[in-house]
Amino acid sequence: MIKETISIKNGESILLQDIPTMEYTDFKSEMLDLLKEEQNHCVSYFAFKRDSGLQLMACIANDHDGTIALLSHKMAVQLNPQLESLTQYHFPLHIFEREIYENHGIKFIGHPWLKPVRFPSDRNDQTKEINNYPFYKIKSEELHEVGVGPIHAGIIEPGHFRFTCNGEMVLHLEIQLGWQHRGVEQLFLKKENLLQRNLLAENISGDTAIGHSLAFVQIMESLGAIPVSRQLNLERAIALELERIAINTGDISALCVDVAYNLGASVFSVLRTGIINLTQEWCGNRLGKGMIRTGGTNYRLTPKLKNRVLAVLEDYEKRFVEMSHYAYKLPSVENRFDGIGVVTTKQARLIGSVGMAARAANVRRDIRESHPFSGFSIHPYEAIVLEKGDVFARFLLRRKELKQSMAWIRETLKKMDFTNQENEPPIKFIKMMPSAFSVSLTEGWRGEICHCAVTDENGQLAAYKIKDPSMHNWKSLELSLRNLEISDFPINNKSYNLSYCGHDL
Amino acid sequence: MISEIKIMVHNGQQFIPDVTTAEVPSPFRGKPEISRAAVDEKALAEVCPVGAIARNPVSIDLGKCTFCGECALAFPKKIKFTNHHKISTNDRNSLIIRENDFAEIMVHPEKIRAEIRTIFGRSLKLRQISAGGDGSCEWELNACGNPNFDMGRFGIEFVASPRHADGIVITGPISKNMAEALQVCYDAVPSPKIIILCGVDAISGGLFVDSPAIDRSFLQKYPIDLYIPGNPPHPLTIINGILELTRNKAF
Question: In sequence order, which residues have a C-beta less than 8 Å from that of residue B93 and are 6 or more positions away?
Answer without folding.
Answer: none
